[in-house]
């Protein structure tokens, strides 16, 4: 089995669509057995979903307004609190 370091590295690559099929298989296998990496992966997915939503919404400008940054920060805090409960 791959190590947690390798798993998180693949997880990051996957985020940018750079992970190979084999890497994704290894990652999924690791995620089934390792709850720490599962939490990391969930957090990663959540952050990119959130970010792409914000970037889609604010297509007028290529950066987030202060209000949006604050909102994003609050959502992340709540999400991270939720994950660490498990
Ligand atoms: Zn792990």
Structural overview:
With 86 residues, the chain is mostly helical. The chain has one domain (4-85). It has four helices and no strands. The chain is flat, with a radius of gyration of 15 Å. The two termini are 24 Å apart. The mean pLDDT is 85. Bound molecules: zinc ion. Zinc ion is lined by residues 4, 7, 30, 34, 36-37.
List keywords for this structure.
binds zinc ion, 4 helices, 86 residues, 0% strand, mainly alpha, flat
Write the layout of secondary structure elements.
Layout: H1 4-15, H2 21-33, H3 35-57, H4 66-85
Helix pairs in contact: 1-2, 1-3, 2-3, 3-4
This protein binds zinc ion.
The site of zinc ion has 6 residues, from helix 1 and helix 3.
Rg (CA only): 15 Å
> What's the average pLDDT?
85
Strand content: under 5%
Q: Estimate the global geometry from the Cα principal axes.
A: flat
- Structural class label: mainly alpha
Instruction: List how many beta strands DSSP finds.
Output: 0
The ordered string of helix (H) and strand (E) elements is HHHH
Question: How many separate domains make up the residues?
Answer: 1
Tell me the helix content.
over 70%
Number of helices: 4
Q: What bound compounds does this protein have?
A: zinc ion
How is the main sheet built?
none
Which spans have pLDDT < 50 for at least 5 consecutive residues? none
How far the N terminus sits from the C terminus, by CA atoms, comes to 24 Å
């Amino acid at each position: 089995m791959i190590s947690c370091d390798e798993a998180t590295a693949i997880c990051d690559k996957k985020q940018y669509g750079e992970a190979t099929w084999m890497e994704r298989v290894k990652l999924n296998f690791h995620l089934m057995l390792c709850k720490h990496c599962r939490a990391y992966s969930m957090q990663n997915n959540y952050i990119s979903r959130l970010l792409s939503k914000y970037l889609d919404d604010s297509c007028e400008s290529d950066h987030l307004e202060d209000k949006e940054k604050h909102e994003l920060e609050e959502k992340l805090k709540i999400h991270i609190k939720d994950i660490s409960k498990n």
